[in-house]
């Protein structure tokens, strides 16, 4: 009989005064300046930017990088918002300060998602955040200029037979209900556990593994991302004992880390966690991707997104394992029996292997 491990969550929504979205003046931050693409993650180095422009924020670099990646907010923009928020203070990189970075990123992200393609989305997000949290903005004027070649492609990208589950082939884990990176918004994230360990228990037997080949970005001792082909990114949080290095090229099914056995390590750059697990999210071209069976699978199984956030009701939210069958959330029945990986990313009508149309879209 299958055991049911304790549910896990990474509930980090924006918490603070209401975000008023009523600005109608000129563009102060271009939408493309906020977009954080896969290419950006490989070419922009926050530490270097802070050294040259905002050296007082260097203690906050891990939190800026981690939350920028999870929320899809470019760290250059987030850094300036953080600097204005901390104006007159020199952060020391403490937990409470990391939580403030997380809150700022969540506020920007929540407004950006609400505003969609509105030409003032980024400006409204930054202004609503500053007004709600009571600080003045001194955003550099150059951020009002659009970035050349960076725009929202739109649509609903699909990806099948490319990613494996985020644990080693041959191991059986459990997965929870889909949710956004903040516990709200479009459900692009899933929480996975190898067993029902609680805080203080040994988690060294459970290895988070690379879901596909790519280049590693290590944001902190508890968070990292892998940048894959054609703008796809998988992000991982609540980690410990990371085995890979920043900018390291890796293959699929490589051990990345364990997930943390204590709350301080699991949330080393802020946020929350209800118990040991890995939080995994997917983005494409800087946008969240719904982790639903209609858009994406994980080679061994797909997930049917339920109602709202963290839905674990098996009548509305479930996994379909391709050899085991239907599995309820948090039942430890998700065997990673992913097949040999393909080197081709398919999208929409290109499952036949003809990727010419795909390449034309992304180049």
Task: Outline the structure in words.
With 363 residues, the protein is α+β, with helices and mostly antiparallel strands. Helix content is 23%, strand content 16%. It contains nine helices and 15 strands. The chain has helices at residues 31-34, 38-43, 46-53, 61-71, 75-85, 95-115, 121-133, 263-266, 356-362, and strands spanning 172-175, 189-193, 207-209, 214-218, 223-227, 232-237, 239-240, 249-250, 255-259, 278-284, 287-288, 301-304, 318-321, 325-327, 334-335. The strands form three sheets. Strands 1, 2, 4, 5, 6, 8, 10, 11 and 15 form a nine-stranded antiparallel sheet that branches. Strands 3-9-7 form a three-stranded antiparallel sheet, with no helix packed on it. Helix 4 crosses helix 5, helix 4 (61-71) runs parallel beside helix 6 (95-115) and helix 6 (95-115) crosses helix 7. The longest helix has 21 residues, at 95-115. The protein is globular. The protein starts with 30 loop residues before the first helix and ends with a helix. The model is unreliable at 345-363 (pLDDT under 50).
Relevant terms:
single chain; 363 residues; alpha+beta; nine-stranded antiparallel sheet; three-stranded antiparallel sheet; 9 helices; 15 strands
């Amino acid at each position: 009989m299958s055991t049911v491990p304790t549910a896990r969550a990474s509930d980090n929504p924006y918490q603070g005064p209401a975000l008023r979205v009523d600005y109608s003046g000129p563009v102060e931050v271009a939408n493309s300046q906020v977009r954080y693409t896969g290419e950006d993650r490989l070419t922009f180095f926050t530490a270097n930017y802070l050294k040259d422009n905002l050296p007082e924020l260097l203690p906050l670099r891990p939190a800026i990088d981690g939350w920028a990646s999870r929320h899809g907010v470019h760290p250059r923009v987030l850094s300036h918002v953080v600097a204005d928020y901390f104006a007159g203070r020199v952060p020391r990189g403490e937990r409470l300060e990391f939580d403030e970075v997380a809150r700022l990123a969540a506020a920007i992200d929540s407004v950006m998602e609400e505003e969609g393609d509105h030409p003032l989305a980024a400006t409204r997000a930054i202004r609503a955040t500053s007004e709600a949290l009571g600080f003045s903005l001194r955003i550099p004027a150059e951020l009002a200029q659009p970035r050349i070649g960076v725009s929202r492609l739109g649509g609903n990208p699909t990806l099948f037979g490319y990613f494996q589950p985020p644990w080693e082939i041959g191991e059986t884990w459990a997965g929870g209900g889909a949710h956004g990176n903040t516990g709200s918004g479009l459900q692009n994230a899933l929480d996975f556990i190898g067993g029902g360990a609680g805080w203080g228990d040994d988690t060294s037997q459970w290895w988070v593994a690379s879901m596909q080949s790519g280049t590693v970005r290590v944001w902190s001792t508890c968070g990292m991302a892998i940048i894959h082909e054609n703008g796809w990114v998988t992000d991982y949080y609540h980690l410990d004992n990371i085995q890979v290095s920043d900018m390291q090229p890796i293959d699929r099914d490589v051990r990345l880390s364990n997930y943390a056995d204590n709350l301080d390590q699991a949330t080393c750059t802020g946020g929350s966690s209800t118990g040991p697990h890995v939080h995994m999210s997917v983005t494409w071209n800087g946008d969240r991707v719904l982790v639903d069976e209609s858009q994406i699978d994980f080679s061994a199984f797909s997930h049917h997104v339920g109602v709202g956030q963290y839905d674990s009701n098996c009548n509305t939210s479930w996994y379909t394992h391709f050899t085991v069958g239907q599995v309820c959330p948090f039942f430890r029945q998700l065997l990673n029996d992913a097949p040999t990986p393909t080197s081709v990313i398919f999208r929409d009508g290109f499952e036949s292997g003809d990727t010419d149309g795909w390449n034309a879209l992304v180049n």
